[in-house]
Each structure stands twice: as structure tokens, then as C-alpha cells.
Amino acid sequence: MSFLTLNDVTYSYPNGFTAVENVSMSFEKGELVAIIGQNGAGKTTTVKMMNGLLKPTQGDVIIDGLNTKDYTTAQISRKVGYVFQNPDDQIFHDNVKSEISFGPKNLGFSEKEIDENVMKAAELTGIVPFLDIHPYHLPYSLKKFVTIASVIAMGTETIILDEPTAGQDSIAIKKLGFIMDSLVREGKTIITITHDMEFVVQNFERVIVMANKRVISDSNKQEVFWDLDILKEAMLKQPHISRLSNKLNFKDRILDIDQMIDVLKKNQVTEDQSGNTLIRDGANI
Ligand SMILES: Nc1ncnc2c1ncn2[C@@H]1O[C@H](COP(=O)(O)OP(=O)(O)OP(=O)(O)O)[C@@H](O)[C@H]1O
């Protein structure tokens, strides 16, 4: 059995609105998975069911053999940590160190474990210099890293990141990639909701696409970003470089600049006697 399974899950909010319908997905330990899809597709509702913040109205969520229906959110949050989309929904302490310590303290860790976890999380997220500062005095980007550190410090086997790239510059986005990589290397499962397709291409292999409350694709990035019907249904665009290669009728399913350069060098680019670049077979421009 997988470490984390959503089995034909439906969720309706108390006002009667059904946000997620008949969704199934499963994750192994050490997996790194992106969830993409239009606004309102049901992504956040789905991941909130993974850490017990929401309990399915139909179907089951099973984490490490535990059905979330039979356990409290506090018990489930020992297994799955969730980093909120908006850091202001998560932060409530008056200095960064207390904020990061709260989770492991709450889980009953010893003083030594708390200190070790806080330092490790702060180092990995690059926020050691800000430990004594009030989180509200930090810019949005750093606040987001405080919330990520707070969840890392809890030592859960799975970490869910909801829109981590929103409001981040390119250096912070690279740092996010590095953090996710380090956690996966430790054997943790990382599930990330994102609208940033370039970020997906650079960091993920498996991609789950949601549209209209359902999963419409769960495959590798090559399949997903070259299935134009799926992208249309999810109202998503191919990465820029894929759109360019598509418009140029290249045969290869290009997803990033390096691949584009390889393909151009190997197949489609030649030089004339004066050294001018010419494009041949496979390109139709
Ligand atoms: N507390 C709530 N009560 C009622 N409806 C809600 C509630 N929270 C979310 N919804 C609705 O459920 C639907 C799915 O929302 P959800 O946040 O899961 O989508 P999403 O794919 O994460 O979207 P986004 O990318 O905008 O965050 C939306 O139509 C939203 O308005």
C-alpha cells in the first residue's frame, strides 16, 4: 500500500458547495509531485484533506495505514505538514524562533530535539539571521520561508507546499528547488501546488493536473505538457519554450532551454559555408 492514498474522495464545504469530486491519487515515500490546475479546480481542498485539516465527505484518505476519519487533525499532522498558501494565515508568534519551535514543541519533542530541528530548518531555508525578528517585520518572501521552516521543524514524513513560488523572485525560487531536493533526499514526500509551469519543469517529474473538481491527468511532465487537450481543459499553457518549439513544428517534446539547444545542435541546425546558422529537417518555419 502507498504511504498516502486518496481513495475516491469527495469534499463538500459546510455551505453545500462541492469542491472536489471522486478524486483518487497516491504517493510513495520520497516522491516529489506537483499539482497544477486553474484557480478553483480543487487543489487546496484536496491537499487539506491530506493532512486532516478537512475530512472527506465521501471516500477515504489513508496515511501510513491511518484513515483520517478515525483520527484528529492533530494526530494526522504528525505525519503530514501543510504550508499555507498565505503566510499570514499560518504565522502567529512574535518572533521567528518561537514560530518555528511551536510545531515540534506541540508534538512533545524534547528541548534538544526542538533546538536541533529549529536550527536545521532555519539553515535549510536560509532564515538563521532572522530568528529573533518579529515575522511581521519580514518581507513576504521571507515570511513564506518562515512558514516552510515551521513545517520542516515538525519532522513530518510528508510536506505539502501550497503555492510556494507566489511572490518570490528567481533566487528564492531556486532556493525552493534546493529545499525540496534536500527534503526528498532525506526520504520525505513533497507535494507542491503551483501555477508556475517553468518551476514545474525545472523541479518535478510527476505532475497531477486538476480541473473542475477532478484529476484529469497524473503522469510525467513530458506527457502532461505535450497533451494540449489536457492543458486546454485545465486552462493551462505549455512552458514558453515548448510553445516555441510547437510553433516551429519541432518533432521533439521540448520542455526547457537545454533540451532546445541539444535538439538544435543534434538535428536541426546546420551551418552554410559562411558560418550562417540554417535550420533543416523537422523545423518548419
Ligand atoms: N470554505 C469554503 N466554503 C465554500 N467554498 C469554498 C471554501 N473554500 C474554497 N471553496 C471553493 O471551493 C472551490 C475550490 O477551491 P480550492 O481553493 O480548493 O481551489 P484551488 O484549485 O486550490 O484554487 P486556487 O488555485 O485559486 O487556490 C472554489 O470554487 C472555492 O471558491
TrEMBL record:
Q: Which CDD domains match?
A: ABC_cobalt_CbiO_domain1
The record's keywords, sorted A to Z, are: ATP-binding, Cell membrane, Membrane, Nucleotide-binding, Translocase, Transport
Principal subcellular localization? membrane
Question: One cellular component GO annotation, for this chain's record?
Answer: ATP-binding cassette (ABC) transporter complex
The answer to keyword ATP-binding applying to this record is yes
InterPro entries the record matches: AAA+_ATPase (IPR003593), ABC_transporter-like_ATP-bd (IPR003439), ABC_transpr_CbiO/EcfA_su (IPR015856), ECF_ABC_transporter_ATP-bd (IPR050095), P-loop_NTPase (IPR027417)
Q: Which domain of life is it from?
A: Bacteria
- SUPFAM superfamilies for this protein: P-loop containing nucleoside triphosphate hydrolases
Q: Which family does it belong to?
A: Belongs to the ABC transporter superfamily.
Protein name, per record:
ABC transporter ATP-binding protein
Species of the source? Virgibacillus necropolis
